[in-house]
Amino acid sequence: MIFITAKFRVRPADAERWPEIVGAFTEATRAEEGCLWFDWSRSLDDPTEYVLVEAFRDPEAGGQHVGSQHFKDARMTLPPHLVETPRIVNFDVPGVDWSELGELSVDQS
Fold first, then answer.
1. Residue ranges of the ABM domain (predicted)?
2. Residue 21: domain span
3. Looking at the 3D structure of the chain, how many domains does it have?
4. Per the domain annotation, does 108 fall within a domain?
5. What is the DSSP string of 47-94?
6. What is the CA radius of gyration of the chain?
7. Is residue 33 situated within a structural domain?
8. How far is CA 60 from each of CA 2, 6, 26, 27, rounded to the nearest angstrom?
9. Residue 81 domain flag
């Protein structure tokens, strides 16, 4: 799978509305056949920073995402709400799901 994490520093005036601003883009991406997940979180330390964790089934699915109309639209509509270019980590990793964090194993009994 293609595993991507990106940090978005949002303009303070838009920080509370960011989930609404990216709502249509998020919904359309999650509906893509090759999207495994597309999840936003907000930093506990910086209320203007949002972190996107996303994964796509394979490089082809990632390419389809980047070629989609909603991605092209986001390239035009999101930057005015940002204070800097988002930072990204992108890896091709084996599997198609999360692994367990064994060091914090929870006893289910």
1. 2-90
2. 2-89
3. 1
4. no
5. TTEEEEEEEESSHHHHHHHHHSHHHHHHHHHSGGGBSSPPEEEEEE-S
6. 15
7. yes
8. 10, 20, 19, 20
9. yes
pLDDT digits (tens, 9 = 90+) for 14-24: 999 999 999 99
Q: Which two three-digit tokens encode residue 93? A: 């990793």
Please give the pLDDT value at position 76. 97
Q: Is residue 109 part of a domain?
A: no
Is pLDDT above 80 for 109?
Answer: no
What single-letter amino acid sits at 87?
A: R
Secondary element (H or E) of residue 37: strand 35-42
Is pLDDT at 108 greater than 90 in this prediction? no
CATH number of 10's domain = 3.30.70.100
Task: Tell me the β-bridge partners of 53.
Answer: 5, 39
Q: pLDDT tens, 60-73?
A: 999 999 999 999 99
